[in-house]
Specification:
- The chain is an alpha/beta fold.
- It folds into 2 domains: 198 residues, 3-Layer(aba) Sandwich (Rossmann fold), CATH 3.40.50.1220; 93 residues, no CATH class.
- The protein is 38% helix and 15% strand.
- The chain is globular, with a radius of gyration of 20 Å.
Length: 345
């Protein structure tokens, strides 16, 4: 079988998550909705009376920084260059908690956007992931649902859309711990399992303590943000006390640590085995260029077909990364309701 790799960017989660500059806006909206108005000055910290208020204020504060610097990644880069390690760690924790709250709540008063002057509600799982997973999953041993052996994913997204779409095709009550046995996405220290999904920027909702990985995505059974915050409030406190690590699960392209390096090595392995590359919703931002070049270098000599699905897809851009004499590039710039799936799958 042809080995098919999907390279996903922010646009691949357009229907389910805030992307690019929108992320900062939504972080501010969330904080303002659940904090008292007098505590919504994100320029200067007010008196905060609880862990819940501190979490919300931090989310609003970093949302404001994301707006001022264009994206949260840009502000994270500033902190990295300034060696502001403590604030960078707090930023990553806030990003992880924000995306966890975003996924767990059904509060559509802030989970909406204006599109062509009409309100658009975000979907819990982007419908395109559901459609894709329906095509690429199968049952093994009359029991376990798995993705086909020749399909792999490399994604720059923090979100777990793929994982929750996969969970939807299993018994939905199953834990993420069980699900991850049949879908290798968790990058664990000291674990030699080959990944099927590589999150190059890391993923939200998980932390390390005592060299073991846990999630805080399943501790709450409610959709109410106040109750969710009550359930996961320990995460932020324990991170500050260095009793656990959330921040090492969110990584940027310029950082180097064991989790980031393992993920990049796995992404290199996947690209080196790729016959067909499907790029979806990815704009090749400047921050990622070094890693993108490293990955595309692994395609040399393989005569890989590349399908690029994005409104701004460009053959010229892709041909700067590959040898045009040995690589076929096909661009799809029409916005569609499904991710492109090659017939060779």
């Amino acid at each position: 079988m042809k080995r098919i790799t999907f390279l996903l960017g922010a646009g691949a989660s357009y229907y389910s998550c805030p992307i690019w500059k929108e992320q900062g806006v939504k972080m501010i909206e969330l904080a303002k909705k659940y904090l008292a108005p007098e505590k919504c000055n994100f320029e200067q910290s007010p008196s905060l009376n609880s862990e819940k208020e501190q979490i919300l204020w931090d989310i609003g504060y970093f949302g404001l920084k994301a707006e001022k610097y264009g994206t949260i990644d840009t502000y994270a880069r500033k902190l990295f260059l300034n060696q502001s390690h403590s604030e960078l760690s707090k930023l990553k924790t806030s990003v992880s908690i924000f995306f966890t709250l975003w996924h767990l709540t059904d509060d559509f008063t802030f989970k909406s956007r204006k599109v062509d002057k009409e309100d658009f509600n975000f979907e819990e799982i982007d419908r395109r992931y559901i459609s894709l997973l329906a095509a690429i999953t199968e049952t093994k041993n009359n029991k376990d649902v798995t993705i086909k052996d020749n399909i792999r994913f490399v994604t720059w997204n923090y979100d777990l859309q793929l994982e929750f779409a996969f969970k939807a095709f299993n018994h939905d009550a199953l834990s993420l711990e069980y699900i991850s046995q049949n879908l290798k996405f968790r990058c664990k220290i000291g674990d030699n399992d080959s990944l099927q999904i590589c999150h190059l920027n890391g993923y939200h909702g998980f932390y390390y303590t005592d060299q073991k990985e846990y999630d805080f995505l399943t501790v709450s059974k409610t959709k109410d943000i106040d109750e969710i915050l009550d359930s996961i409030g320990y995460v932020s406190t324990s991170e500050r006390r260095k009793q656990l690590q959330v921040s090492n699960h969110i990584n940027y392209a310029w950082e180097s640590n064991p989790l980031a390096e393992k993920t990049r090595n796995e992404a290199n392995r996947i690209f080196s085995e790729t016959d067909i590359l499907v790029i979806i919703g990815y704009s090749f931002p400047n921050f990622n260029k070094e890693i993108d070049k490293m990955l595309f270098d692994k395609l040399k000599g393989r005569r890989t077909k590349i399908y690029y699905q994005d409104p701004n897809a460009s053959e010229i851009f892709i041909n700067q990364l590959v040898d045009s004499n040995e690589t076929e590039v096909f661009c799809d710039r029409v916005k569609k309701d499904n991710f492109y799936l090659p017939y060779e799958f």
